[in-house]
Amino acid sequence: MSLSVGIVGLPNSGKSTLFNALLSRQMAQVANYPFTTIEPNVGIVPVPDERLTALSRIAADLTPISADRMIQPPIIPATVEFIDIAGLIRGAHQGEGLGNQFLAKIREVSLVVHIVRFFTNPDVPHYYETIDPARDIEIVNLELELGEIKKPTLYVLNVDEDAINRRVEEWTSGDFKNLPIHLSNHPFVQVCAKLEMDLAELSEGEKREYLKELGVKETGLDKLIRKAYEMLGLITFYTIKGGKEVRAWSLKNGETALSAAAEVHTDMAKGFVKAGVVSYEDLVAAGGWQKVGELGKIRLEGRDYEVQDGDVIELKFSV
To answer: Which fold has domain 254-317?
Structure first.
């Protein structure tokens, strides 16, 4: 999919730190996949997806190397494109700062991720001298409005490390009592961008242990990526390629089997015949493609079938 997410925020809000944390995901997990050259301000980030691991185990049954050994095939996740957009200041709609570049880029994206500074760090002074999230939100929103830009927005509250488990109610009272006015009817997640950069330096095992100590089940970046994916209106379907590759594909919610075929390969769409479809839940419960077929759970669907999130699809096409 060509949908993209633009990261915006005032100077020193942690925008670049968050983007660099996202880039670390790209380099660690996506670099070996066949993506084209990526611009410095663009990150192609994998979507966290536990279902891929279970599907890979099932696919391993298709590729035995001996009676008691299996090759677990590689997995390729769905991705989201994040774009680090030039910083914004008051007057951007009139070209102040890098306002013209900001407005041009923001018009190209499908979703805005708005970084709002909550963290305190005397070594990183606030552009407007004081920590005031409600004011900062208002500045950015006003510039978008004056620039005649209307986009769905996901707010990211960039907090201190000791505040990542703070309840939402604590952010909407006291000094931040004006926040409900600005965040009403808008989704938001809490992230500590600095912590995410620190986690990027750890191994997977060390990361899990650190998160356990913090009392956190998943990273802020995982929450952010999942939420952005959802707000883009995307669902995920899967293909298992000869037991040698398990891949997740993105598709707009409501699109058809023919569109899914086009995502995989244009030739499959041109020669589309039918699609064998089984839900992820049914396939995992059965324990394999052959077993789920014996249970009569594989459906043959035509080109107009509306793909559901979690569908595992085997495409039939003529050359």
So the answer is: Ubiquitin-like (UB roll) (3.10.20)
Torsion, Cα 71 72 74 76, to 10 degrees, reads 150
- Average of per-residue pLDDT values in the chain: 85
Tokens (6 digits) for 87 = 């910083």
CATH 3.10.20.30 in the chain: give the residue spans.
Answer: 254-317
* CB-based contact 55:238 (threshold 8 Å): yes
Residue matched to tokens 């997410």: 5
For 106-120, the pLDDT digits (tens) are 888 999 999 999 999
CA distance 13 to 18: 10
Task: Express each pLDDT in 237-256 by its tens digit.
Answer: 999 987 678 999 999 999 99
Most confident option among 71-75, 160-164, 170-174, 295-299:
295-299
Q: Where are the alpha helices (DSSP H) in the chain?
A: 15-25, 51-60, 99-106, 133-146, 168-171, 179-183, 193-200, 204-214, 220-231, 257-264, 266-270, 280-286, 289-294
pLDDT at residue number 39: 62
**Per CATH, which fold does 4-50+78-231 belong to?**
Rossmann fold (3.40.50)
- The whole-angstrom separation of Cα 198 and Cα 213 is 15
- For residue 101, the tally of other CB atoms under 10 A from its CB is 14
Domain with CATH 3.40.50.300 in the chain: 4-50+78-231
